[in-house]
């Protein structure tokens, strides 16, 4: 039933296995929409969901300047970021072997605030294109005031790990041999629904392709 | 684009608004499948996904006894737990007003290990029925050895908050008045797929109703 923890570890650059793992890390990060960012505040943990985007081996984290944990993270304290995708529930023959199929990435590091306007604009483009591909070219771009009101952090993906569970249950041999119960996986799918236009739209405008064709 | 942070706060029991908020908290917790559990290890934050289940105002957290952060949490250190459900991407007229629709719960507290066998069995039932309703009555129940190999924590929901965003974008008046671009919400849905039987099944067995009829 557990999503086992991803131990604090580094995917070492260079080795063949590391290349595979880094590709898996990138794939998981690119497939998620929201991350969970953890920081330490007054000795206690604080975790909150926030948007992110990846550019190479840099993870950008996004938040309003009012977000306490992002303010904390911006001071150079250690952060931990998790991205988890659920793929199914694993119904085993025994309660004990019940589990989930999932893809999980965990990143450790120190988040650095992005303050240079050009770098911040680039980071916001990465964040926007992760959340809503096509929006950067379609929507009104940030004003200097909006840029200033946005807090962006950069986190290196050097210390990261990825853990993936797929496939059928891992029941005990005796339970499998007894064959007394059904076992298998109930997949969990996510899909985009039908776009819901803002009631404040005046003109009768088609849903743009970057929204209507999103897969 | 941000999931704004849920500030550390308490839903006070008793008041009318608190009742509503507590119902919303319960609804969010009951709708999720995985939580993100954060603890402090050697002064640094650690966050990992794990299974959970709710019974009244108690949240049970589940993990193998090998899970480092659960071992840490079991020593009585402060924990923070987040459950986040994504409901859609909010395409605004401006990049700055892009957002997500979501339901997010955050719980602060001190997790207490559940060690009494009867209490642990009850907690495991709650966890199992959250992950896979019907499995407790259908699957083989835990042996004493399996029970001992499982770590369960209990966390009181006394200090918790819930934050929900719904509806269309919150664009600036000037952007709305200009009416130059489409804006709206692209909903994100999750749905169960077709059950995938374990290839190791011997008998030709129907998928049981608690799996096939899950909604």
TrEMBL record, chains A, B:
Pfam families noted in UniProt: Pyridox_ox_2
Highest taxon above the source species: Bacteria
InterPro entries attached to this UniProt entry: Pyridox_Oxase-rel, Split_barrel_FMN-bd
Annotated region described as Disordered, given as residue ranges: 193-215
Protein name in UniProt: Flavin-nucleotide-binding protein
Origin species: Saccharothrix espanaensis (strain ATCC 51144 / DSM 44229 / JCM 9112 / NBRC 15066 / NRRL 15764)
């Amino acid at each position: 039933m557990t999503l086992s923890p991803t131990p604090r570890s580094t995917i070492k650059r260079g080795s063949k296995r590391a290349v595979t793992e880094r590709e898996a890390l990138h794939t998981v990060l690119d497939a998620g929409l929201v991350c969970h960012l953890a920081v330490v505040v007054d000795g206690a943990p604080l975790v909150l969901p926030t948007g992110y985007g990846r550019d190479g081996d840099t993870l950008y984290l996004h938040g309003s300047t009012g977000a306490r944990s992002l303010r904390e993270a911006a001071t150079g304290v250690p952060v931990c970021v998790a991205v988890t995708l659920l793929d199914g529930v694993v119904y085993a023959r025994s309660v004990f072997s019940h589990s989930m199929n999932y893809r999980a990435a965990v990143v450790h590091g120190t988040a650095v605030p992005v303050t240079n306007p050009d770098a911040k604009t680039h980071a916001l483009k990465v964040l926007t294109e992760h959340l809503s591909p096509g929006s950067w070219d379609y929507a009104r771009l940030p004003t200097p005031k909006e840029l200033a009101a946005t807090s962006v952090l950069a986190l290196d993906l050097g210390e990261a790990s990825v853990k993936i569970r797929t496939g059928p249950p891992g029941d005990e041999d005796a339970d499998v041999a007894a064959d007394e119960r059904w076992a298998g996986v109930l997949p969990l799918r996510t899909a985009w629904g039908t776009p819901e236009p803002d009631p404040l739209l005046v003109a009768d405008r088609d849903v743009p392709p970057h929204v209507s064709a999103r897969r």
